[in-house]
Hints:
- GO terms for molecular function: DNA binding; DNA-binding transcription factor activity.
- The chain is mainly alpha-helical.
- It has helices spanning 19-39, 46-56, 63-70, 74-86, 108-130, 134-150, and strands at residues 90-94, 102-106.
- The two termini are 31 Å apart.
- The mean pLDDT is 89.
Amino acid sequence: MTNDQHHDEAGGIDLELFLPFQISQLSSKLDAQARMIMARHGNLSLPQWRILRIVAMGIACNSTAVRKSAGIDKGQFSKTVNALVSQGYIRISQWPDDQRQFRIELTDKGKEHHARIAPDLDQRQRHLFAALTPQQRKMIFPTIHALAQAAQSIEFLDNPDDTD
């Protein structure tokens, strides 16, 4: 492919050729779709929902594991957890073996909210998978995991340790 084939008609770079741009666009659309669904059930933010979902599904219950599973940075996680506690969706307690950690548990209100919204988001998951061919369904998670792994490194650069 020649360099000219990477440009649009106006001479700018064709962003549709850039994988990170495409993934960012998809993420924005998925987030918007999730917010529309969640707005039907109250005013939880996506990070709040992710924390509720992770704890409700038993994926994790200690603060670090929940934060990492949700993909939320430490500052946002702290604010989000505090909001969930103050709104009565979760309760926290000190982790027995590590005072830097805390256990997150759903309150009755959190369990009820999860039970109301989870079916709609599960239906959304089925809708998204239905948009894929059987071959695409087999490849989606290995592809996502491979890209996530590749995104953790800059070793592909000629001088990855150089900084400006």
